[in-house]
Amino acid sequence: MAPPLIQLKDIRLTFGGTPLLSGVELNVAPSERVCLIGRNGSGKSTLLKIAAGLAEPDGGMRFVQPGATVRYLPQEPDFGEHKTTLAYVESGLAPGDDQHQARYLLEQLGLTGDENPHNVSGGEARRAALAYVLAPSPDILLLDEPTNHLDLATIEWLEQELDSRRSALVIISHDRRFLTNLSRSTAWLDRGKIKQIDRGFASFETWRDEVLAEEERDQHKLDRKIVDEEHWLRHGVSGRRKRNVKRLANLHTLRDQRRNYRGTAGTASLAAAEAEQSGKLVIEAKGVTKAYGERKIVESFSTRIQRGDRLGIIGPNGAGKTTLVNLLTGGMQPDSGTIRLGANLETATLDQHRESLDPKSTLAEALTGGRGDQIMVGGKPKHVVGYMKDFLFAQEQRGTPVEVLSGGERGRLMLARALAKPSNLLVLDEPTNDLDLETLDVLEEMLGDYEGTVILISHDRDFLDRVVTSVIAPEGNGKWIEYAGGYTDMLTQRGADLKRETAKAQAPAEKKEERPAAPASSPKRKLSFNEKHALETLPKRMETLQADIAKLQRVLDDPNLYAKDRKGFDDTSAAIAKAHEDLSAAEERWLELEMLREEIEQA
Question: How far apart are CA 598 and CA 471, in angstroms?
């Protein structure tokens, strides 16, 4: 077995109170690919800094193979005094490195190299930092949330680039798909210690549940043993003094074990404060167009969003996702076309940008708006400490300034503020950024239970597959197409690689004619006979059902019906409920087929 490139042994670190790291062991061999998993605040980023030699532990040993090159990607890169992104990337190259790699990688990541690194967006800063760590082709890459602020095309490019390299990897990420595709072993940092298996992230959750179940059984056995020993202490002490003293010492040891046991942290209790139900129709867009100068952002876009839909919007950074959402929700007027909003809409919005948080305010002030100890949750007052605990904040953090919170903690804070407002339409812009996997699971469950409608902008492929019922993707020059199902379903329907397609979406309009023809082996999708028949007959079916509902409603409008004909009232009520269900099913089927027909015609 090859000697490790990096070895951490008995790493200990305490910031007062409970140790953050307690005897951590981590070995990374050449070409090994490790995903470092743990909850927000468990010490993952700190451990990665220690591995990179940028932070000192209280105790323990760090060993790096002599001559091995290490590059560390922080969550927030420091560009120093560099005037351009190219100068920044070139500063990380050693004399023997390929100097052309700096510009090549910047171009691959969509940068020119002339950008001022101090004035770029979060996504551009992350791309420049990735070029900086990749350019020297190091022996080991330590990557802290490498996919944050990246669009889907760049994430998939990064996956392929890392997969093609021989560098060892240690990756912290909340992106399940990214970890599954790249990792070959898993290091789980839990309660200050690391447990490690030679299997990738795909096996992690099953393994974690087995470990926790075994731990729970062990604690149950320990509790039973303590009870037995305490019973002996009260009723069984006799005769042999030496034996009794030893048994009493064993009891004290067992009690110490139980007292020092650090149980798993609780899970977040996310729940959206729901308003009264909205109308069946939430948003209807017809022929919506929006442009800035000659640049078309949205061109002739139409959709119909109904109550309970979960709509995912994807696309490259700068494609116009936020503009599209603002148009759909009425926050921006289109240049042409119409937007119709349904009745009784109450919208809550989570913005990916966290500038709305005052960094100097405390956690409690950010939740209450600086108004006392109560926060209104769903129109009802709740003590701020209780609400903080729902989102995994400790009572002691009440006075913590926002500026010292971790990225994951700020993400939970933004969720807490958004979900407190009563809503039946949730608009979430990159809600998964910086959240740990457990909180992502709870957020997913919350959205599954939410009875309203969800519009979600996200670059997290796994989260999209788990949550949304349809995906809107850009096709270039302002064209957006809606696909039924999640992200993987969208790729299947497109029949093309996402990276290639999004590159086309960003290409200038005049080059669109250069798109290669589809291979002859990929026949064009056609509507089946049953689909054509349903598309033709469903409108008539919907008209008939609407007429039946109107007729039944006139019967129920008789105020004396219940008193004079109880059975007739019950039968009519059941019939109108069934007619509404049938109408809803017919409308949804027709909409699905109509969208499919439009996709086929535009293909």
Answer: 15
User: For the ranges 33-42, 210-219, 465-474, which has the lowest average pLDDT?
Assistant: 210-219
Q: What Å distances lie between residue 535 and 287, 486, 546, 589, CA to CA? A: 21, 23, 17, 9
| Rounded CA separation 40/11 (Å) | 19
Question: Are the CB atoms for 499 and 476 separated by under 8 Å?
Answer: no
Q: Token match 């876009």: residue?
A: 301
Over range 573-595, report the average pLDDT: 80
- From first CA to last CA, the distance across the chain in angstroms is 53
Strands 281-292 vs 336-341: parallel, antiparallel or unpaired: antiparallel
Question: Quick check: 603 and 524 in contact, CB under 8 A?
Answer: yes
CA dist 479 → 137, 459, 493, 518 (Å): 39, 19, 16, 19
Residues 99-134 as b/e (b if ≥16 CB within 10 A, e otherwise) read: eebbbebbebbbbebebebeebeebbbbbbbbbbbb
**What six digits make up the tokens of 12?**
């200990």
- Residue of 438, 432, 333, 329 lying closest to 37 (CA atoms): 438
Contact 388, 395 (CB under 8 A): yes
Helix axes 100-108 and 122-134, enclosed angle (nearest 10): 140
- Show the DSSP H helices in 406-524 as ranges: 407-419, 437-449, 461-467, 487-494, 498-506
Q: Residue 134 corresponds to which amino acid?
A: L
Q: What would the pLDDT profile of 189-225 be if each residue is shown by its tens digit? A: 988 899 999 999 999 988 888 888 887 787 777 777 7
Give the start-end residues of each E strand in 220-324. 281-292, 295-306, 310-313
**Residue 476 token pair:** 């270039």
Q: Which two tokens stand for residue 153?
A: 């095309």
- Burial of residue 95 (CB within 10 Å: 0-12, 13-18, 19+) is exposed
Two structure tokens written together for 566: 């109880």
For residues 456 and 306, what is the distance between their CA atoms, to the nearest angstrom? 15
What tokens does 511 get?
Answer: 């080059």
Contact 180, 201 (CB under 8 A): yes
In whole angstroms, how far apart are CA 237 and each of 233, 254, 407, 416?
Answer: 6, 18, 56, 56
Q: DSSP assignment, residue 84?
A: S
**Residue 72: strand pairing partners:** 142
166 backbone dihedrals φ, ψ, rounded to 5°: -95, 0
